[in-house]
Amino acid sequence: MMPPTDVKDRHVANRQGAVFALADMVLVVTSMGVIKQAGATFPAIQLVFFRAIVGLLLIAPLIWRYRSDVFNSRQVKGHLGRVLCSTLALSCNYAATAALPLTLVTVIGFTRPFVILALAALMLGERILRRHWISTVICFVSVLFIVKPGSMSWDWGLLAALGMVLFGSLSVIQTRRLTGEHAVVLMVFYTIGLAILTAIPAAFVWVPPGLDDLPAFLIIGVLAQVGQFCFLRSHQLAEASILAPLSYVVIVFSSIADYLYFGIVPTLSLVVGSLAIISAAVIGTQVGRSPR
């Protein structure tokens, strides 16, 4: 899809992209709420497995249509590395969502761009501007202020959230190495690999679901897949400068969901730390642009 060149068309595309981005946020937060409720009964790895199975059913036509591109890929090792990191990241995400307030998981997730920044410098040799590093430090200190490592136990929920950030960042780095691959091929490898890698671990901790549990699994899978479509569509339509600041609105949706569904009121440290992280993230997305 070619980006719009006319100014009026670009404004329309930006508005449409913003709508898709907001839809993605609502879908993600809604799915997190369902995951949090289901996570009280089912292990995270089992939820990831069901999410993958539902995703496979939804993209089955794409798998058939792009089967030649999938089977003829010359970057299978790269796909395997990406799928492994993505599987670990998603499993950690589901575990953290089940154990922690949605807002806290969202805030910790805001640190991922800065971890990607550091990994890009170390693993890809990219040159990072000084102000980007300053933003990274601000973000890291803000997270420490929120979680207060000296005053709370580092339970598995927090460790899972940190694992979510680390493995998610590694997945992004691996994705950037997969140059020339069609986006659909990336999605097909991801969904198939996710189902395969989670099948055996899920079997070891399997909790037999009842018929009344199946709607939750279906909702998680459908929301995740539709959310992925909205995310990709938003980036096809809108400019990065529009989407970057807008992405931090998700913390508002997370806070509302925490309050409405679980009665969790954001703490002062969470609000202050979140504002600092959002400010650092906005700085990080706006600096370093070359003049035109």
From TrEMBL:
Keyword annotations: Membrane, Transmembrane, Transmembrane helix
GO cellular component: membrane
Keyword Transmembrane: yes
Name of a matching Pfam family: EamA
Residue ranges annotated for the EamA domain, each copy included: 17-147, 156-283
Record-linked SUPFAM superfamilies: Multidrug resistance efflux transporter EmrE (SSF103481)
Subcellular location: Membrane
Membrane topology classification: Multi-pass membrane protein
TM annotation in the entry: 12-35, 41-64, 76-96, 102-125, 132-150, 156-173, 185-208, 214-231, 243-262, 268-288
Family annotation (InterPro entries): EamA_dom, EmrE-like
PANTHER family registered for this protein in UniProt: ACYL-MALONYL CONDENSING ENZYME-RELATED, SOLUTE CARRIER FAMILY 35 MEMBER G1
UniProt similarity note: Belongs to the drug/metabolite transporter (DMT) superfamily. 10 TMS drug/metabolite exporter (DME) (TC 2.A.7.3) family.
Protein name: DMT family transporter
UniProt organism field: Microvirga tunisiensis
Organism placement in taxonomy: Bacteria, Pseudomonadati, Pseudomonadota, Alphaproteobacteria, Hyphomicrobiales
